[in-house]
Design a protein that fits this description.
This protein is of the alpha/beta class and 264 residues long. 54% of the residues lie in helices and 9% in strands. Strands 2-1-3-4-5 form a five-stranded parallel sheet, with helices on both faces. It is globular.
């Protein structure tokens, strides 16, 4: 075989491979780094389209917000912002007749909430905002996040709310437990020391900046420092019994915020 023939024999398959690389790249599914926790890895993999197409998930409540009328005269509208613990909270059942709006989204972290803060909070013109978050930040649902980054996201939300004369209620992170098999991974992802440290920071931040601190943790924790077994089957999300404890605490905090708002 002549040298030109050898070159052609080698180059043609190589050229075909090179030409196919862009197509292969387009059909390769994106992946997320492993966390070492199979449940979390599967959850994050299932949300790749969210993380790449609409990280803040502004599409979730866009239509609901557009159909929402402005607050009526004298209406004390309240927005609950948070993750799945808020998302699963059927507010009309626990606060009947109250103009309370649920803007929780399953799985969200504070950077995502900050991205949708204008659409899902400011533009709804509430008098009070109740924020319950950070448990997914600790777990690393959208990636590893330092306490300082979480604190900065809270400060940004607080400053935006204050600029628009919205009173803020910041809720503590709930305790977690590992009393059931379904709870083991959620518990391992949320070290108690981080929960306690972030709750202490938030309580101090509220005191220094005249925000209302809502302490769910103390009302839900057991003698072992974990979420009471009867209040969550999966160690994280409150049952009806849990929400029944949380609801009057939230209402008391809201009324305190409204009273402070009238005093401004």
């Amino acid at each position: 075989m002549s040298l030109p023939s050898i070159i052609r024999t080698i180059s043609q398959p190589l050229l075909a491979i090179l030409l196919s690389l862009p197509a292969l790249a387009q059909h390769t599914a994106p992946s997320v780094p492993s966390t070492g926790f199979s449940g979390l890895d599967q959850y994050r993999a299932s949300r790749i389209s969210i993380y790449t197409d609409d990280f803040g998930q502004l599409a979730c409540y866009r239509e609901a917000n557009a159909s929402l009328s402005p607050p009526a005269a004298g209406e004390s509208r309240v927005v609950f912002l948070g993750d799945s613990i808020t998302d699963y909270w059927k507010l009309p059942d626990y606060f009947p007749g109250k103009p309370y709006i649920n803007r929780g989204i399953d799985g969200q972290t504070t950077p995502q909430m900050l991205l949708r803060f204008r659409q899902d909070v400011i533009d709804l013109h509430p008098k009070v905002l109740v924020v319950l978050a950070r448990t997914n930040d600790i777990a690393g649902v959208t990636g590893r996040t330092s306490n300082e980054d979480i604190e900065a996201n809270y400060a940004s939300m607080a400053e935006l709310a204050r600029a628009h004369r919205i009173r803020v209620v910041f809720a503590s992170i709930l305790p977690v437990h590992n009393y059931t098999h379904d709870a083991e991974e959620s518990f391992a992802l949320r070290p108690r020391d981080r929960i306690l440290a972030l709750n202490k920071w938030l309580k101090d931040y509220c005191a220094k900046n005249r925000f209302v601190f809502l302490d769910y943790f103390s009302a839900l924790v057991d003698e072992r420092g974990m979420l009471k077994r009867a209040l969550a089957d999966d160690g994280l999300h409150p049952t009806d019994a849990g929400y029944k404890i949380m609801s009057p605490l939230a209402e008391k905090a809201i009324q305190k915020a409204l009273a402070e708002n009238r005093a401004l």
